[in-house]
Amino acid sequence: MGQDVGQGDGMVVLPARHPGYTPRSVAGLTGYERVLARAGLSPVAGIDEAGRGACAGPLVVAAVAFGPRGLTGPHGIADSKTLTAKAREKAYDEVMATALAWHAVVIPSTEIDELGLHVCNIAGMRRALAGLACQPAYVLTDGFAVRGLGVPALAMWKGDEVAACVAAASVVAKVTRDRIMRDLHLRYPEYGFARHKGYSTPAHMKALGAHGPCPEHRHSFVNVSSVACGDKGPQATCDDPRPDAVGALAGDMDGAVVGDVGGALAGDMDGALGGGVGGGGGLDREAAWSDAGQEN
User: Fold this and answer.
1) pTM of the prediction?
2) Domain for residue 91, yes or no?
3) CA atoms within 13 A on the CB side of 208
4) How far apart are alpha carbons 239 and 90 in whole angstroms?
5) For 87-100, how does the pLDDT look when each residue is reduced to its tens digit (9 = 90+)?
6) What is the secondary structure of 69-90 as a DSSP string?
7) Which domain holds residue 60?
8) pLDDT digits (tens, 9 = 90+) for 5-26
9) Cα–Cα distance between 32 and 159 in angstroms, integer?
10) Total domain count, the chain
């Protein structure tokens, strides 16, 4: 005789997790990469950005890949925002010495204004990954998932605090951008870019109100556009861009910017980075921030 089984009478048995494939907190920043390597997924690449909340200067997105051997090398790597400028430079040198490959994408403020911040960020992550000199078996991204990477990926909340490759990408992006902002300070000293790196600090907002925007300011940000429109009053320290017709589309704007699937200025080593990693790294600029206008 059959037996009726109602809702709630059955028991769902979850598959057991293999202990060798479970990241442990005691493993530190390299826990996820080591587990993935044991599962045959190596090298592992991490992607992160710098300058998303700034109202001036470029957005920089970096990807860094580590092989199993490289995980034993970097010791000073951590979320770039928690490190001093000196410690970040030291961590940057460690990444250059131990990473299997790295690639940085520089997206100028003019493109952010034209396409929207989120679209540029997503496209920059794809381009940074495509520009690596190796093919990662797995990708870890900071914060949110990115479609169209072409390899298995995992979005990690505060990934730069829990995964070495994401923390390394954070350091590369931050150091690259800081160097650019220091160069911009020489061209526009009245704004103090070397100090606040283009973020909306009170000192920056005061200078913006006094001098108006320069070509490196993001006009899609309301605190910049209000000054450009003639409002010289006190500016709010707003780090988020106003919604615009393009930026509001967020998500997977697959063909919006991804014209150079190769990424593919890998090896185009700009002097701002001062050298490369045996062909494993590069700086990809979609448009120059120098006086020359656009690079070819």
Assistant:
1) 0.72
2) yes
3) 34
4) 28
5) 899 999 999 999 99
6) GGGGS--S---GGGS-HHHHHH
7) 27-189+245-250+271-285
8) 444 455 555 455 555 555 555 4
9) 10
10) 1
